[in-house]
């Protein structure tokens, strides 16, 4: 039984999450647990979906239908991360500004989407993790 496809998303998520925590902590010059979540470098979502697409390409080949499905899913997730989720973050920032002084308003999370650099970093992380998982599960 080939467990590489089950292991891949978890390892990509873990590596991207730890990397994001380290990058945020270095930038903030403190342990930045509060900055872990949506947004930031690298994109966890991009790492997971691009890593799975890369693993399928390595193990099954790019002509396999599963690669096409994984690539399509990766594009959808990355487009969503760079456009829709960034807009949601901008809307949250506007709502937070409008609600300044309202004690009943719980501040909305403004950091939601990803920049192109954060998505590209996620793709790199996903590809490297796919190579590692492929090497381990050979």
UniProtKB/TrEMBL annotation:
Taxonomy, superkingdom: Bacteria
TM region positions: 6-23, 35-56, 62-81, 119-137
Signal peptide (UniProt feature, chain positions): none
Calcium in keyword set: no
Keywords annotated in UniProt: Membrane, Transmembrane, Transmembrane helix
Keyword match Transmembrane: yes
Name of the protein in its database record: Divergent PAP2 family protein
Taxonomy of the source species: Bacteria, Pseudomonadati, Pseudomonadota, Betaproteobacteria, Burkholderiales
């Amino acid at each position: 039984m080939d467990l590489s496809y089950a292991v891949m998303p978890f390892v990509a998520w873990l590596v991207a999450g730890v990397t994001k925590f380290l990058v945020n902590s270095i930038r903030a010059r403190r342990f930045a647990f509060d900055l872990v979540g949506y947004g930031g470098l690298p994109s966890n979502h991009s790492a997971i979906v691009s890593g799975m697409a890369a693993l399928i390409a390595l193990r099954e080949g790019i002509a396999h239908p599963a690669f096409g499905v994984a690539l399509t899913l990766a594009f959808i997730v990355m487009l969503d991360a760079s456009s829709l989720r960034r807009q949601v973050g901008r809307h949250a920032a506007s709502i937070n500004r409008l609600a300044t002084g309202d004690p009943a308003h719980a501040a909305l999370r403004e950091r939601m989407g990803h920049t192109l650099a954060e998505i590209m970093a996620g793709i790199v992380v996903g590809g490297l993790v796919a190579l590692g998982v492929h090497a381990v599960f050979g």
